[in-house]
Specification:
This protein is an alpha/beta fold and 341 residues long. It has two domains: 171 residues, Glycogen Phosphorylase B (Rossmann fold), CATH 3.40.50.2000; 164 residues, Glycogen Phosphorylase B (Rossmann fold, 3-Layer(aba) Sandwich), CATH 3.40.50. The strands form two sheets. The chain has a seven-stranded parallel β-sheet with strand order 3-2-1-4-5-6-7. A six-stranded parallel β-sheet has the order 10-9-8-11-12-13, sandwiched between helices.
Length: 341
């Protein structure tokens, strides 16, 4: 099959540090090439592809980019040509990118990794968009868009299992780990409070947001706690360092304060056998078997009490879940079934 994978140009595919869905695109592309399929990745500068790559637009922080007609026309020109030589176009970026091909016969897949406004979907379905399947990375996200109508499927985020080593046992006082973009909604401040309540070392990794209010959050509510002992901040990290840190930690803390779609750090953590303590935002509960692969809580105090129960969780079950439900091969096959139907 000839597959085109499309993404916004702002973050390279795959990302070096921050970037979730950009990582998934590259991982499934690699699997498709291994299966013998032809793959074209259409994405921003500094991207890579295991097969064909077409670059457009420019890299920039996604928070500040506005879609202009120059960017749109650049991409439309690419799609007008590529539609003739592909069997499916799978868009992980903005729905608007599909504008020129809405009414073509080619198989189309639109994937969402964020809260959806069903209004656009409803309009699109009313005007007769042909041969399109909508997917989202959790049942929770599907529920935000399904009222717009259309054919919907849940396909979770994945991780390249072979890049993460399973660690069956860690010391009883192994550190806790937080990883994510350092914005308030991700809950790093709560993770710090949990570490302080339990006197358990916490390693924090992540990218500092360029948004002014989030910079203030980082400088005023996070940085003052970084002492290098109880709370250690290590900045953004790649998969190699993730593998080492996940494998050495007792649990990952995920105290989100927003409607989290389905964090890629969840399968990454599980791949190393590391359980997760989380708040129940968005699709997070779909990935956690309470009492086996992690715990769900609603406050820092409750999460702190669960830290004492980490040893009751199964690192083996975490790894099994990563392989069974969230591997790059599993998710590539899930999408391919949609392409083929």
């Amino acid at each position: 099959m000839r597959i085109l994978l499309l993404m916004d140009p702002f973050i390279p595919v795959p990302p070096v540090h921050y970037g979730g869905i950009e990582r998934v695109i590259y991982d499934i592309a690699c699997q498709y090439v291994k299966m013998g399929h032809s793959v074209t990745i259409v994405s921003g500068p500094n991207s890579k592809s295991p097969d064909k790559l077409i670059e457009y637009g420019r890299n920039s922080d996604i928070q500040y980019i506005k879609i202009d007609w120059k960017l749109s026309l650049e991409l439309f020109s690419i799609l007008r040509k590529e539609i003739k030589t592909h069997d499916v176009i799978h868009n992980f970026g903005r729905l608007f990118w599909m504008f020129l091909i809405f009414f073509s016969k080619i198989k189309k897949v639109q994937t969402y990794m964020r809260f959806i406004s069903p209004r656009n979907i409803k309009i699109l379905n009313k005007i007769g968009c042909r041969n399109i399947t909508y997917t989202a990375v959790s049942d929770a996200i599907v529920k935000t868009g399904i009222s717009g109508g259309g054919n919907w499927k849940t396909v979770y985020n994945c991780t390249p299992i072979e890049q993460f080593e399973f660690v069956a046992d860690v010391p009883s006082q192994a550190p806790l780990f937080f990883i994510g973009r350092l914005e308030r909604c991700k809950g790093a401040h709560t993770a710090i409070k949990v570490a302080q309540l339990t006197k358990r070392k916490l390693i924090i990794a992540g990218t500092i947001s360029p948004i002014e209010e989030e910079i203030n959050y980082f400088e005023n509510e996070l940085r003052p706690h970084f002492d290098g002992e109880l709370i250690q901040f290590i900045g953004p990290i790649d998969n190699e360092r993730k593998n080492k840190i996940f494998g050495s930690c007792a649990a990952m803390l995920l105290p989100v304060e927003w409607y989290e779609p389905f964090p890629i750090v969840l399968p990454e953590s599980y791949a190393c056998g590391t359980p997760i303590l989380a708040f129940p935002g968005g699709g997070v509960p779909e990935g956690i078997i309470h009492g086996q692969t992690g715990y769900i809580s609603t406050s820092a105090e409750e999460m702190a009490s669960q830290v004492k129960e980490i040893d009751k969780l199964s690192r083996k079950k975490c790894r099994e879940l990563a392989v069974e439900l969230y591997s790059d091969l599993k998710i590539a096959n899930d999408y391919f079934q949609i392409y083929s139907n």
